[in-house]
Structure formats: structure tokens, C-alpha cells
Design goal:
Blueprint lengths: L1 H6 L2 E7 L9 E11 L3 H14 L1 H8 L7 H6 L4 E12 L7 E4 L20
Antiparallel strand pairs: 1-2, 2-3, 3-4
Length: 122
């Protein structure tokens, strides 16, 4: 995947709610670019969020004491940042494929919001 992204970092993302019926699907469709997270501070933050979200899996991986085992795989994971440049809200409840484009730009004159950054040591 990494070599494909170096050649063309464009990607699409779809985030849907939990419905299994297509008529009730709602969510986001986004187009944007993907780049690897390179700095150690950002990698640490991404790893921390991954462990927080998938704690039981991460705990199992980290408890592996074998050299080169699962803990090494977790430490060697690559993280990527997706930055959307176009976004749509989709709502099949209003008709199949119904979507409305969302404006990602801040209101005129307003500063673009700075993402909340936590200290890498919590």
C-alpha cells in the first residue's frame, strides 16, 4: 500500500452508521489525500489512540514475549493521515444515493480550527 500511495496519495473514505438495511444507511463519503505519519511524536499519538480503541487486541499483542513476535509487529505498524478535501453527507432515507456536499472551509474571516493536540505523555 505504501508504494501505491507514494505514486498517487489520493483516496476515498466512506463511514456509515450501523444499519444493515440500505434504505436506512447514513454516513459520510470523503475524497482526499493520504500521507504516512512520520514524526515520532505523531506516531506515538497514533499508537496511543489505536491501543485505546482496540485495547484487548493491543494487550494481547504486547503480552507476546517472543522476540520478533506480535509486540514487534505492533511496534512496527505504519500509521497514515487522511486529509479530506471534499465531503458529502449521504442519506438513503431520502432516496438511494442521496447526498449533500459539506463545506470544509471555515466561515469567511474565521481562522481555520487547529486540531486539539495532546501531549505524547498522558
Amino acid at each position: 500500500m505504501a508504494s501505491c500511495l507514494q505514486e498517487n496519495p489520493r483516496a476515498v473514505v466512506c463511514i456509515l452508521g450501523g444499519s444493515t438495511e440500505w434504505q436506512h444507511l447514513q454516513g459520510l463519503q470523503m475524497e482526499g489525500s493520504v500521507h504516512p505519519v512520520e514524526s515520532p511524536t505523531e506516531r506515538f499519538g497514533a499508537m496511543r489512540r489505536y491501543v485505546k480503541r482496540y485495547g484487548s487486541l493491543a494487550a494481547r499483542l504486547l503480552s507476546s514475549a517472543r522476540p520478533g513476535g506480535a509486540a514487534g509487529k505492533l511496534a512496527g505498524m505504519r500509521f497514515y493521515r487522511f486529509t479530506p478535501d471534499r465531503c458529502w453527507f449521504t442519506d438513503n432515507g431520502r432516496g438511494f444515493g442521496h447526498r449533500v456536499q459539506l463545506d470544509l472551509a471555515p466561515p469567511s474571516g474565521a481562522p481555520f480550527p487547529t486540531p486539539h493536540r495532546r501531549s505524547p505523555i498522558a
